[in-house]
Specification:
about 230 residues, alpha+beta, Immunoglobulin-like, 4-stranded mixed sheet, 4-stranded antiparallel sheet, 5 helices, 10 strands
């Protein structure tokens, strides 16, 4: 495989000109280059939080100050009168809090998505009265985002590290999940009891090495092609 070094140099030069992420006077993550107050504080859009999810420019371990600013941004939106609580907002807040490693708040928004923005058949909808809609309108965003939120609560990965049960809600005391996918082609099965990991099976399709994290502990695992390794909480 070849590499276009000239294109890469152009991209790196353009990226170096981008403004850095900044924290505003309210402690929030700035949405704009300058610290403007929101014209619509209750608006459903939080595009600047893409640095938290799906990207990984912000995280509680890597950038704790920015992570706190991201949470303040979320809470300011939630607390604004007339907050536009649509189905994909609840889905977004689920994945945001999962990335912030707060499983209980993630679960609260997942429950809100199911209870307040989904039909009896669990198809999510954008509520009438928001964005000019006269009635509830089916929207796939809630279904896709909600399942992504559940996955992020149970497994996160960035290509170099796989984290097990990063945002497990306290109410999910016992459980198991099979077939979650981690970056790098890994397939992961996880079981837990009393809120603690009991075991995890990680399968790699190729010869590879990856770091696995559970809470504050990490271990480096080396895989042969098509090998599964089973680990426990220790």
């Amino acid at each position: 495989m070849g590499f276009d070094t000239h294109l890469r140099e152009r991209i790196e030069a353009a990226r170096s000109r981008l403004a850095p992420l900044r924290i505003g006077r309210h402690g929030q993550l700035q949405e704009w280059l300058y610290d403007f107050d929101e014209a619509e504080p209750a608006h459903r859009h939080t595009s600047h939080l893409c640095a938290l999810y799906p990207e990984r420019q912000i995280g509680p371990r890597s950038t704790p100050e920015l992570a706190e600013a991201a949470e303040i941004t979320i809470e300011r939106r939630r607390g604004a009168p007339g907050w536009e609580r649509t189905e994909w907002v609840e889905a977004n807040f689920t994945v945001y809090f999962a990335r912030l490693l707060n499983g209980d708040k993630a679960l609260a928004h997942l429950r809100g998505l199911i209870a307040d923005a989904s039909e009896a058949n669990l198809m999510s909808y954008s509520a009438g009265g928001v964005a000019g809609a006269r009635q509830n309108i089916y929207s796939f965003d809630g279904n896709a985002g909600g399942t992504a939120g559940i996955a992020e609560m149970l497994l996160q990965s960035d290509g170099t590290e796989i984290e097990l049960l990063p945002a497990l809600p306290t109410r999910w005391r016992d459980g198991s999940v099979r077939g979650l996918r981690a970056r790098g082609g890994y397939t992961v099965d996880i079981s837990w009891r009393d809120g603690r990991l009991t075991n995890a099976g990680i399968h790699s399709p190729t010869t590879a090495t990856v770091r696995v994290r559970y809470q504050d502990d990490t271990v480096e695992l080396a895989f042969a092609a098509d090998e599964e390794v089973v680990i426990g909480p220790e």
